[in-house]
Structure formats: C-alpha cells, structure tokens
Amino acid sequence: MRERRAVNEVPVGRRVAQWRVRRNMTQQQFADRLGKSKSWVDKIERGARRLERVSNLREIADALRIDVQVLLAERPVRPGQADAGVERIRAALARYHVPAPPRPPDVAQLRAGLEHAKQSYRHAHYPALLTVLPGLLDAVRAARIGRLTDMLLVPVYGLIALTMVKVDQGELAWLTADRAMAVALASEDPQLTAVATVPLCQALRCCGRNGAAVRAAVVAAHRLGPRPGTQPPASVESLRGTLLIQAALAAADRADEHSARGLVDQAVELADQGSFGGEGFGAAAVQTARVLVEAARGDLPTATVRHERLLASPGWRWLPQEHRAAYLLDVARAYAGIGEMSRAGRALLEAERAARGEVRDRPAARNLVAFVARSTAAPADLTRLAASLHAT
C-alpha cells in the first residue's frame, strides 16, 4: 500500500548512512548505540527495512546528534512538485469506488500511518504529506471496517483539508473538509463532528467565509459542552477550546471585534480550568489567538506586549512547530500591514527557525518574504532567505 512508502522521495536510509559516516561510526557502533543489531542498521541503510515509526526516527536522530527533520523532507516544495501532489490528492478524492483489499486490513498499520501523517503536519513537512496522504486515504476508504472506518476517515480527510490550506488550495480544502463533516454527521457523534469542524473552519477562513466558520465552530463547541454534574475528559475540553479559538480568529477576520474578544475570553476561562499539556490546547494556544485578535483590532502596542510575553513563556515551546510558525507568519503579516518591516522580518525569520516548511513550502509565506525583503528596513538575514527561495 502506498501509505507504507518512505516519508519523502529521497530514501531516509541513505541519509542515515551519510550521517553515520559523518559521525565516524561503523554500522556495529551505531547499532550498539541504538540497542539494535548490525543487520537491522544495514537493512535500514539499504532501504530493505522501512522506518515507519516516529519513535524510531527520533532515536536515530538522537544517536546521530541531529534534528529529526534532517532525516525527513526539508527541501522547499517546487511549484511543479506541489502541483503534482495536489493532483494526486484530487485524483484520490475522485476515486468513488475503491475496491476492498484481498486480505483483512491491518488496523494497527492504518493507525500508525495516520499518526505518522499527523506528525508530519505538526512539523510542517508538507512535501511528505503531499506524497503520503493519497495512499492513506485510499487505504482507509478500502478498509470497510464499520465504525472504525469513520474514526479514521474523518481525521484523514481533515489532514488533507489542512494541507490544502497550506498550499493555497482553499476550495479543494473546503470540499475535503465537507466530506469529513458528512461522515462525522452521519455517525451522530458530537466529538467526531467537532474533530471534523476544526479543519472545516480553517478551510472556510481560507476561502473568506468567516461568518460560516464562526457559526460552525460555535455550534460544535456548544454540543461538546459539559452536562450538569459531569467533568468531560481533557481531550474533549481541548477540542472545545480549539473550536473557540477557531471561532475567535474567524470573527476577528470579519472585523467582529466584540465576538472575537468574547470567544477568546471563553477559551481563556476553559484553559484556566485544567492542564492540557499533551492535548494541543492550553494557555499558550489561547494567547496566540489573543495576540492576533488584538492585532486585528488595530491595537498593535497591546498585541506586541502580549506577543513578547508569550515568546518568553514556558508554554510557547510546547506548541507544535507548525502552530508556532503559522502564528509567527500571522504576526509578520500584521506588522507588514502597518509598515513595521523590521519587526515583520524578524517574525518571518523566527517562523523559519520554528518550522522551515511553514515558510519555505507555503506560497503565501514565500510571497510575504518577498514583500518584506524588498524593504530597506528588512533584516539582512531575511534578504538572504528571500534569495534562497528565489522570492525577490
């Protein structure tokens, strides 16, 4: 199945071998450091064994003293590559009759493939996603394992929608998110519907349909609300908080300042009630929304103070790399909008350090880099970044 391919077209095993040699280690020494056999290392380097578990990638990266991203796709997506990836996804979406596999599906493998794709998104590895997602969608749709198919299909559709937003394919993102919502609504599961609503809101915002995004997020969050005398699990409360943030950002985009601030206040109250360290929602995530809402209101001094305080907070580093970099791009856009090109340039450089792919592989980000780099106030490093992206 295609979801079992390596995370990018350049064999990961070859990169492992290159870095092992750079570190002056024999295969046996490297194997001993990993607690594996020499045969295992040899198969990895020759490509005879796939590296499909994120934990294995991290162990290898740690042993080689490099960032795990070095082993993954880190080159910018060229326009032709992105177009080809989008077309593969479009073709997968158009396959309405996917035949069942000859053997029962390996559910654990499907789940591992989904988790791997999620990790790629969190690290802004969009080349990997454009390669992996079509095959993963085919495999999940072909599985036909009842209720479990819905539980896997909704997040797969959601990841496709989010990735399409990143490569400026808003209408295709909306189409895909709508399919996820249709599956979720048919399940009559409020939590699964809420999961589908998050990428739907981002797709709607990408298409400028901010009013619809606000309504969808508020309704889904309300349906997740706690019942009297019950305490929802952290995963549900995290999801509700994420929906409130999406609603607040969409309200800010449509210049509804009152609603945006009220929704952020609700998210703050929710974040203050519990610990969401591993759930993707918490004080830092709420503060990113508050900064952007203040910026949308035109209150850049307040937004700047909150922004600097956020970057110094412990929770900042707990945010996924994609979240941090995407937020920094929005901050850069806000500064550029008022002519603060020096600050905009610094925010862009911080975004590139947080997640290379968020700047290098997104058309909108490259355009912003080019715009800011043309200013005489732009940092010299940004000029060099623009040149490396051919965005001048």
Automatic annotation (TrEMBL):
Residues 16-71 form the HTH cro/C1-type domain. SUPFAM superfamilies: lambda repressor-like DNA-binding domains. It comes from the Bacteria. GO terms for molecular function: DNA binding. This is HTH cro/C1-type domain-containing protein. The lineage of its organism: Bacteria, Bacillati, Actinomycetota, Actinomycetes, Micromonosporales.
